[in-house]
Write a structure and sequence with these properties.
Strand content of chain B: 15-25%
Helix content of chain A: 25-40%
Shape of chain A: globular
Radius of gyration of chain B: 15 Å
Number of strands of chain B: 5
CATH superfamily of the largest domain in chain A: Aldehyde oxidase/xanthine dehydrogenase, molybdopterin binding domain
Number of domains of chain B: 2
Distance between the termini of chain A: 59 Å
Strand order of the largest sheet of chain B: 2-1-5-3-4
CATH architecture of the largest domain in chain B: Roll
Structural class of chain A: alpha+beta
Strand content of chain A: 15-25%
Largest sheet of chain B: 5 strands, mixed
Number of helices of chain B: 5
Bound molecules: FE2/S2 (inorganic) cluster
CATH class of the largest domain in chain B: Alpha Beta
Number of strands of chain A: 28
Largest sheet of chain A: 7 strands, mixed
CATH architecture of the largest domain in chain A: 2-Layer Sandwich
Largest interface: A-B, 57 and 53 residues
CATH topology of the largest domain in chain B: Ubiquitin-like (UB roll)
Oligomer: heterodimer
Chain lengths: 780, 156
């Protein structure tokens, strides 16, 4: 069986997971283990008048109770947002101070004010309840529109009116003029509902301080352990990088929520030094709802203008983005450079303008969640397109097709340069697979059973493979977004690849090994992938934004290029041939057209025995590379959803879901399809089930799985997943990325289908049975 | 403190434990069998499913002291050394990604198939989806989990 590029190789990592031998952070227990429990604010907005820890300190097993004044007193720095976005008037964003343990004020329910360290988890939790915090209550605000209103509670002193920034992109005057001259203008107000990412493994941290070495070790649930170490060192002053090892072992899903460095990890590290104990904290699900960064939460109005032929002439958008109580690590980039830059969708639109206001509220910080900005952009464009088609009496597929970008590279008015794609091919493939031609018959048949059947489209595009470091640097990013890899060939010819990408479900241990096995013609069992430990891998930027294929694997290819060059030199020398005649094939390194050959492992051995190397060659066979992408990549595709609505109850069933994606080169179709399945499920979750709800006082209403509707097996259909690919010209393997597509493309397809079925376009996410039933009543 | 003696994965174990100890905690912390996971605190996600006397149970809502004399099987003991057909099917059909829900999914799925076989009922796709009501997976979208259960059911 082939294990190379394009093969459905079963995952190398599965054995440990299916036998219960996975090693997640909470599975780790040190000899000296103590446990942390956080004292959290029950109020959304209040001043801390006093903290009395005397009762807690006297309780069984309590080692210490620590607070924010001690933390800042020890020089632990404030938590930062790492991407500086500038307002349209040139002023910098208004970043309010965020201490890992609050000192003066609490700003959301769940904000940590103190931590109890005790011998057992139960003792720590009981003692945390005995810490008495005296609060002076302040009025709170939970939604972005209310936070912008006159007289709204002021959350940070340095952000007047709770405004973080007022940013724009595109040409406002040209867009206004285009809309004024349009034959038809579609106008909509759209809300992108607030979500909780909910990876199934709750966050966890085990921090150990070694007094003799003055060295820290942190096991943590991270998508990017090196970024965590960098930030913990450079900004939070926990320890310099060479005195801090961060290990992200098996991580049970991330979806963005595990990118950030949260108060709990910082506090555990600091507390391990204070108490001279190894400190462990594991979130429970309730705590996860209260503290994991949420996603989405946009309120937008938009106008899309068309000429008499149905060509889009202009798009104008105004968005307010809820940031929560503090600016999380990448929060500022999500509603700007990851959102507004994608507002051209798959379409050739000459004029686009988008204004975005970022706003503080008394809620959990909001940051990137699977798709991050791109689902919000896609939802807006694709709801507008479908609505415009209905208003103008055009076929929604053909209206899209008439506006598709057809030649590449294509520069949009919102600073993206699309490099490749064949949007018509994806639309055709999806329409064929979904049997759109037979829809009318299916609809009539459904009607005979008393069901309303609807169909909805979504043609999405996203920017992945983040990102060219200089480009993002010029836009305010505080880091470069390259990736690194090291390929180590052992004397026996087996290979370890050290990568800065992190796998928390993506199957890198298999996919990455496939490209190595194929390149050098060795068995895939002889390749292992090492990741997630700052002591093993030199550096890396981690996994998010569908970047591990396009960026992470490109770094591996670059390192393999160097290995190959050295292998050829060694073989040419040993086989007394010209380097140009050496080929690597079928596990052998040979002289083309002859029977002179060395087995792969013989080359490895030669490199390490160093008995017969070319003059001046260093022994060993190990090469590293950093890869910095030249552009974003642009996965795209069309999703078609069919639903049946029960008009009596509003209960909606997705009866068919068809995806056609262009991901560029696919290494392992089985894994890629799995990514699409999971993304679609989260997209359906957003469209039909999930919604974080705060009440007017900023109390979280949806704080558990009893209240927050997670998609379950019976809520979802089987999916039809297809590929029509164009090769990405920007990286050596031609990969575009597949991790987020499902979450981006799905929500508008679902809502377009339901609104088609019920004949009322006025339906917000999540389209619960109650919401659908109400919309249906309003339509009748 | 109460002393309990029970059989876990075929071995007899005896421990003095606080009365409030949950089975999940007993397995993870006292026996260090960390294959059983805890994904929620409201008995909703099924990451913690094990078998008690041959039937699926959520270990996060089962008190260990109530299990004196019981037979408990966890993911580590599902197949001794070999792989159970359900484990094989999960990997063959790519029914797992991050692996966190997987032990609970596999234990629940084995129980589903056993029950349907015992009752002589056919396990359709719809039935599998319905039966997996108590198990949440955030990664796979369930598509391949359902396929894995269908395929294992044919072999069990
Ligand atoms: S941990 Fe038992 S149901 Fe979630
Ligand atoms: S595989 Fe990650 S939660 Fe199911």
């Amino acid at each position: 069986m082939s294990t190379g590029i394009g093969a459905r190789v079963p995952r190398k990592e599965d054995k440990r997971f299916i036998t219960g031998k996975g090693r997640y952070t909470d599975d780790i227990r040190t000899d000296n283990q103590a446990y942390a429990a956080f004292v959290r604010s029950p109020h959304a907005h209040a001043r801390i008048a006093s903290i009395d820890t005397s009762d807690a300190l006297a309780m069984d097993g309590v080692i210490d109770v620590l607070n924010g004044k001690q933390l800042t007193g020890d020089g632990i720095g404030n938590i930062i947002c790492g991407w500086a976005v500038t307002s349209k008037d040139g002023s910098p964003m208004n970043m309010g101070a965020w201490s890992a343990l609050a000192t003066e004020k609490v700003r959301y329910v769940g904000d940590a004010v103190a931590v109890v360290i005790a011998e057992t988890q139960a003792q720590a939790r009981i003692a945390a309840e005995a810490v008495v915090v005296d609060y002076d209550m302040l009025p709170a605000v939970a939604t972005a529109d209310k936070a912008l209103a006159d007289g709204a509670p002021q959350i940070h002193d340095n952000a007047p009116g709770n405004l973080i920034y007022d940013w724009e992109i595109g040409d406002a005057a040209a867009t206004d003029a285009a809309l004024a001259g349009a034959a038809h203008v579609t106008e909509m107000a759209l809300t992108n509902n607030r979500l909780s990412p909910n990876p199934m493994e709750p966050r966890s941290a085990v921090a150990t301080y070694d007094t003799a070495e003055d060295h820290y070790t942190l096991y943590t649930t991270s998508q990017n352990p090196h970024v965590a170490r960098l930030v913990l060192s450079a900004f939070y002053n926990v320890a310099p990088e060479h005195k801090l090892r961060v290990i992200a072992p098996d991580v049970g899903g991330g979806f963005g929520a595990k990118i950030y460095i949260y108060p709990e990890e910082i506090t555990c590290l600091w507390a391990s030094m204070k108490t001279q104990r190894s400190v462990k904290w594991t979130s429970d699900r309730s705590e996860a709802f209260l503290t994991d960064a949420h996603g989405r939460d946009h309120i937008s109005t938009a106008k899309m203008g068309f000429d008499a032929d149905g060509k889009v002439v202009g798009l104008k958008v105004d968005t307010i983005a809820n940031f929560g109580a503090y600016m999380s690590l990448f929060s500022s980039a999500v509603p700007t450079y990851l959102y507004a830059t994608l507002l051209s969708g798959q379409y050739d639109i000459a004029n686009i303008h988008c204004n975005v206001r970022g706003v503080y509220t008394n809620t959990v910080p909001v940051d990137a969640y699977r798709g991050a900005g791109r689902p919000e952009a896609c939802y807006l464009i694709e709801r507008m397109m479908e609505t415009a088609a209905r208003e103008m009496g055009k076929d929604p597929a053909e209206l899209r097709r008439a506006n598709f970008v057809r030649s590449f590279p294509h520069e949009t008015p919102v600073i993206m340069t699309y490099d490749s794609g064949d949007f018509g091919a994806n639309l055709d493939q999806a329409m064929q697979a979904a049997d759109v031609a037979g829809f009318a018959t299916r609809k009539a048949e459904a009607a005979s059973r008393g069901k309303l059947r609807g169909i909805g489209y979504s043609s999405y595009i996203e920017a992945c493979g983040i990102a060219p470091s200089a480009a993002v640097g010029s836009l305010g990013a505080g880091v470069g977004l390259w990736e690194s890899a090291e390929v180590r060939v052992n004397p026996v010819g087996t290979i370890e690849v050290l990568t800065g990408s992190h796998s928390h479900g993506q199957g890198h241990e298999t996919t990455f090994a496939q490209i190595v096995a194929e390149r050098f013609g060795i068995p895939i069992e002889n390749v292992s992938i090492v990741h997630g430990d700052t002591d093993k891998v030199q550096f890396g930027m981690g996994t998010y934004g569908s970047r591990s294929g396009a960026v992470g694997m490109s770094a591996i290819v670059k390192a393999m290029d160097k290995v190959e060059a050295k292998v050829k030199k060694i073989a040419a020398h040993v086989l007394e041939a010209s380097e140009a005649d050496i080929v690597i094939e079928g596990g052998e390194v040979k002289v083309a057209g002859t029977d002179k050959a060395m087995a792969w492992h013989e080359v490895g051995l030669s490199a390490y025995t160093a008995h017969n190397l070319p003059p001046d060659m260093e022994p060993g066979l190990k090469e590293g590379a950093f890869y910095d992408p030249s552009n974003f990549t642009f996965p795209a595709g069309t999703y078609i959803c069919e639903v049946e609505v029960d008009p009596e109850t509003g209960v909606t069933e997705i009866v068919q879901f068809t995806a056609s994606d262009d991901f560029g080169t696919i290494i392992n179709p089985m894994i890629v399809e799995g990514q699409v399945h999971g993304g679609i499920a989260q997209g359906v979750g957003q469209a039909m089930l999930e919604q974080v709800v705060y009440d007017d006082e900023g109390q979280l209403i949806t704080g558990s799985y009893m209240d927050y509707a997670m998609p379950r097996a019976a809520d979802l259909p089987s999916y039809g997943v297809h590929h029509a690919s164009t090769v990405c010209p920007g990286n050596p393997l031609g990969i575009k990325g597949c991790g987020e597509a499902g979450a981006i493309g799905t929500p508008p397809a679902v809502i377009n289908a339901i609104t088609d079925a019920i004949g009322n376009n006025n339906l917000a996410m999540p389209a619960t049975p109650q919401a659908v039933w109400k919309a249906l009543q309003a339509a009748n | 403190m109460t002393n309990i003696t029970l059989t876990v994965n075929g071995k007899s174990v005896s421990r003095d434990i606080p009365d409030e100890t949950l089975l999940s905690e007993f397995l993870r912390e006292h026996l260090r069998l960390t294959g059983t996971h805890v994904g929620c605190d409201t008995s909703q996600c099924g990451a913690c499913v094990v078998h008690v006397d041959g039937k699926a149970a959520k270990s996060c809502t089962t008190l260990a002291v109530a299990l004196d004399g019981a037979q408990v099987t966890t993911i580590e003991g599902l197949a001794n050394g070999d792989l159970h057909p359900m484990q094989e099917a999960f990997t063959e059909h790519h029914g797992l990604q991050c692996g966190f829900c997987t032990p609970g999914m596999i234990m629940a799925s084995v129980d589903i198939v056993n029950r349907y076989k015992a009752e002589g009922r056919t396990l359709t796709e719809k039935a599998i989806r319905h039966e997996l009501e108590g198990n949440i997976c955030r990664c796979t979208g369930y598509h391949n989990i359902v396929k894995a259960v269908e395929s294992a059911a044919a072999k069990m």
